[in-house]
Amino acid sequence: xxQFLLLLLIITATSVxxxxxxxxxxxxxxxxxxxxxxxDFFTYNKLxxxxxxxxxxxxxxxxxxxxxxxxxxxxxxLLDYLPKELLADYLQETGMPINDLKKEYVINSKDEMFLDxxxxxxxxxxxxxxxxxxxxxxxxxxxxxPSDIYNAKNILDPTYEKKGVNAIKLEIPFSSEGMISSIVxxxxxxxxxxxxxxxxxxxxxxxxxxxxxxEQHSWVDYISMNKNAEDRDLIAFSFSxxxxxxxxxxxxxxxxxxxxxxxxxxxxxxxxxxxxxxxxMSEYYYNxxxxxxxxxxxxxxxxxxxxxxxxxxxxxxxxxxxxxxxxLIEWSNYLIVNxxxxxxxxxxxxxxxxxxxxxxxxxxxxxxxxxxxxxxQFEENIAVRLKVYF
Length: 390
Description:
- This protein has helices spanning 2-16, 84-94, 98-104, 299-308; strands spanning 22-34, 41-56, 59-72, 75-77, 106-108, 112-123, 128-134, 165-175, 178-185, 194-203, 206-221, 226-243, 246-257, 263-273, 279-287, 315-326, 329-338, 344-355, 358-368, 381-389.
- It is mainly beta.
- The protein has one domain (2-389): Porin (Beta Barrel), CATH 2.40.160.100.
- It has an 18-stranded antiparallel barrel. A two-stranded antiparallel sheet has the order 4-5.
């Protein structure tokens, strides 16, 4: 009821002040179903309202509000997606009954309403400043961004919009093709505030970036259930450009932790578009946090995968292809392979542009691997997504 009243208030207010704001957004509905004898259904409705205002030639304001409702199978226990042997070992370690333990790992999808972005932008001759909740995108990778300390990426839908981060972002150009920038994501105090500095330069047809970031990294001991924190320093380097009409990109990141082992992550990728519209891409990912053998996957590794998408293995390959089979229809195929445990997930994607303002997508997720492998735990499913822009 409160959400309805707030939506009504926003619509009324924007109607009154419509001459002052540019108002746009979209409605999105997605319904998915697990492919099994008695399938479960999960669906959501999402309404995003965007507000933009150019206050003066050098000052602008942007914001958006998201309303999202969930229906169908809205409650799941993460323990249902673990290998049975690993779950049995964890039960023995904790000494808790399975039903009690499952309650500790339940994820509920509850209706929500939130301010996703709200920021003021100031454009000056010698600097640009943005203050407020804003989207931050770092790195050059498609499926993985090891240099992005602010966002966790969903490799099954890597291009989906990122959520806003409450931050101050300052950009200072030092030449026509170079820039220094800094981002400060506000936390409870300075130690819990994530901060980063970036040096960008366009050179020899390539965009280069060198960055440094520091955060207080939080993690959970899943045996004692105690929450822990340690300092994390990240040094990253990335580039992107084209070599003989072949797009190339790379991203590397070294992570130094105050209490745990340091680790390295990196990606390298390439893509090419043929004259007939056929697009091919590939990306290799090295994950220093991962294991080379599936027998070394631990309970905490699985929980990190579910929580923030930290993959279990050490080496991955992402392959993609898309082709316009008609004027408004595109057929795509994506394959993600864990090169260590030999499991993979295959995602075909059929996209229809009904017109300039209406998109319809039909997709599926088909996984393969033995009982202990990473992608074998991904349930096969199909999904349809409708998106209407206004």
